[in-house]
Amino acid sequence: MKNFTSVHDIKHPQSLIQQVLEIKNNGKRSTLGTNKTLALIFFNPSLRTRLSTQNAAINLDMDVIVMNINKNGWNIEFEDGSVMDGSTQEHIKDAVQVISGYCDIMGVRTFANLKNRDEDYEEKVLKKFIEHSNVPVISLESATLHPLQSLTDLATIAESNIPKPNIVLSWAPHPKALPQAVANSFLQWITKTDAAITLTHPKGYGLSKRFTDGVAITNDQESALENADFVYTKNWSSYSQYGQTPSVENDWTISQEKMDLTNNGKFMHCLPIRRNVVATDEVIDKSLVFEQTKNREYAAQAVLQNLLEDL
Ligand code: CP
Fold it and tell me: Which domains, from first to last, does the chain contain?
């Protein structure tokens, strides 16, 4: 593996999912990363990604350096050829080359700005990191994808041992406009498995066709939930009216009454979750969300192991 930025960086996604579960079940300590350093660069906040990836590196005997670059670094310039006589102090090409001189693998988190769809979907910032880094790059969530989360989610589904599960990806309410990255990425990974996937969202919240090929889509949440084995829930803002939050008539919060429509289905969410907005306390408290968060560590470790083996 050269970089880890999407499912397309993986030759055999199913093998990687099995590797995550093997690490979880057969002991996680290794010295593969001795004398190697992981740098984690955050443009945006994180709890799970930051701590689980640090833990994964520690399990491999790596050293870890972490920087919240927006808070603690110089103002970064992203435009090539820019005359830097304004507020930006350091060019991205210099910053990334400097960081890659201090580490053997680099992780970067950079969210969508939700203003310019083309810029976000071109993955402008992540691409700059890949272009200027001398070491492998891991996406810790980018403008349009969250591959570490998706690998975790598929491992969590796989460990439930339900053959050909029925999976529903449902939009849910949220008070703020959020990126489409988790939903896009979940579809990108789940369509590589033999699961049956149904996407349900209100009108105006369709995702990019790039991710919905072969996916059943309905605006009727309750009919989608019938017979679901897993209900993966996430909010996202509009793709067609990019970054907007068109008004929604019906109640899309996942309640116990809605979960009762499923095939004894398990509720999943990447967290953080707005309780009693996205889903009720009752649903969240008996869900798989903490299995997912624990599996983040093993997913990150599987990715780091593959990258270390190929250094
Ligand atoms: N799910 C997830 O990526 O959580 P954080 O934003 O806290 O890292």
Answer: 7-145+295-309 (3.40.50.1370), 148-292 (3.40.50.1370)
